[in-house]
Amino acid sequence: MKVIPLLKIFPSRYISLLAFAKSFLLSFGSMFHFSGSLNHSHEKSRWAFTFSVSDLRSITLKEEGWCFLVFKLKEPSASLPALHFHQGGSREFLDSMRRYKLKKDPYVTTLGGFSKVTNYLFDALRGTEEQQRRPPEEVADLLGEVIPGLEINQQEEPGFEVITRIDLGTRPQVTRREPLSAEDWTQHQDPEGRMINVSHLKQVIFKGGLCHAVRKEAWKFLLGYFPWDSTLEERKALQRTKTDEYFRMKLQWKSVSEEQERRNSRLRDYKSLIEKDVNRTDRTNRFYEGIDNPGLVLLHDILMTYCMFDFDLGYVQGMSDLLSPILYVMENEVDAFWCFVSYMDQMHQNFEEQMQGMKTQLVQLSTLLRLLDLAFWNYLESQDSGYLYFCFRWLLIRFKRELSFQDVLRLWEVMWTDLPCQNFHLLVCCAILDSEKQKIMEENYGFNEILKHINELSMKLDIEEILHKAEGICLQIKSCKVGLSSFKEENWYFCDYTPTHPEGGDITSVRPRLLSNPFLGHYSPNSFQI
To answer: Which end of the chain has fewer surrounding CB within 10 Å, N or C?
Structure first.
């Protein structure tokens, strides 16, 4: 018996399984019938039953001479007749349902996948019948749906053993400093408003972050909205141009009539999803709490306008999580929009339908963890967790739901310095896992326990401890650069990073280099930058 999870996968809409089955019958020519009957006035609909897909908890596939499907709803009192397939075709029917889901809701491939891998399994752990252990191979199949092309089952190959011969040595201790003050920020400007000593300024931000009074201006530089070498007058002119451009795009969707909207299904879908997500994004934050909050209106309008800016991508669940802190800091609709555009330029691949960004990052993270801690990686691999899919949410929205709101602000501005390497967020993942590995291994956590444990870390993480450890890991890798040079033929390369005292001095900007291995598949030489 195989239970196929559907909780939180499908959007809230009603579909007729009879109509769906008829469509399937035309495609595959399989015979089936519904067991049980419902009292309908017309003979044609005598065997039909309809329910909301949002109420569906699971589909159980059973075999008793032939296959039949049992639909289980969230409401335990509700029961549905079984769907029988006497001449085969049950698996094709399920595949057809999945294709129907993806065709109707392309955004599901992004955060819907995240929901399947994380939310559903955690909910299942709290259930009754769902408490039985989920077969690892079933989750491998599930991940294959979430991230097409990602191979879960790894096989040892010659060449990867190079990692076992690397001694990373003792992890260096690092120090951090207080956030950059408004006075310090002003001292890094020339009389015309250009930013000076930018490399040192980025180092100070990396080491301590920013005081909140500075964020509104500094984030525009860190995100690339303002050029570092621009004068104050040039920035004012840029803002005027960008303001006009923003409101022209906003007018495009604001001026769409109801009749036009009825003929534009994509716009309707974007609008509906945005409205749902806005109403549940950071509602405990004072900036967004309450009914008719103006912050929610701005959040909605910026996301709708982004659909006009990038209509191919439009809106995907999770993007509201990336915008919320930016709008909170900017307190200005236009500035928040263009900063969000800059951030989405970095995060775009995370939300694309093929999810190439997520596939690449998961491969990179697994590679990196195997280098740093082979014993822990082997343990995770033995529990069918070697691809670190429980880090999916961390990577997708950059720890937005793992940290307190203020800690998210601190982490993001540190990462935006691109120090000590461009993919510092992967070292942040390693730092968190390093803190949790002892408990995971000593308690002999299995597949489900690892998922549950990682999920329960949300809002319990210490951002300063994580940043200390992540930087220390980077220095640890750098310290064994000489030892790694002998394995050049294995394509293991590491960047140069020169740490300094937090109170001053220069820091070398990291030049991205490749960290790869043929064992982990093929990806762009520029994709792994550490």
So the answer is: N
Q: Which residues contact 67 (CB under 8 A, 6 or more apart)?
A: 61, 84, 85, 88, 90, 91
pLDDT score, position 98: 60
Q: Contacts by 438-445 with C-beta closer than 8 Å and gap 24+?
A: 440/376, 440/379, 441/376, 441/379, 445/383
pLDDT at 318: 95
| DSSP calls for 307-352 | HHHSTTT---TTHHHHHHHHHHHH--HHHHHHHHHHHHHHHHHHHS
For the sheet with 83-85, list strands across it. Answer: 2-5, 56-63, 67-73, 83-85, 32-34
Question: Which CATH number, 1.10.472.80, 3.40.1080.10, 1.25.10.10, 3.30.1330.30, labels domain 356-488?
Answer: 1.10.472.80
Long-range (24+ apart) CB contacts under 8 A made by 521-525 are: 521/151, 521/363, 523/360, 523/363
pLDDT of residue 35: 40
Contact 363, 521 (CB under 8 A): yes
DSSP for residue 521: -
Question: Domain residues of the chain, as ranges?
Answer: 21-102, 211-350, 356-488
Nearest to 24 by CA among 81, 91, 72: 91
Report residues of the chain scoring pLDDT below 70.
Answer: 1-47, 53-54, 57, 74, 76-78, 95-166, 481-530
Alpha helix (H) residue ranges in 105-162: 111-114, 121-125, 136-146
Q: Which two tokens stand for residue 96?
A: 């057809």
pLDDT digit string, tens, across residues 113-152? 444 444 433 343 333 343 344 454 444 444 445 444 444 3
pLDDT at residue 99, as a whole number: 56
Q: At what angle do helices 447-455 and 424-442 cross, to 10 degrees?
A: 120
What's residue 502's pLDDT?
A: 41
| Domains 211-350 and 356-488 in one fold | no
pLDDT of residue 125: 34
pLDDT at 159: 32
CATH of 211-350, one of 1.10.150.130, 2.40.128.30, 3.30.450.40, 1.10.8.270: 1.10.8.270
- List the beta bridge partners of residue 24: none
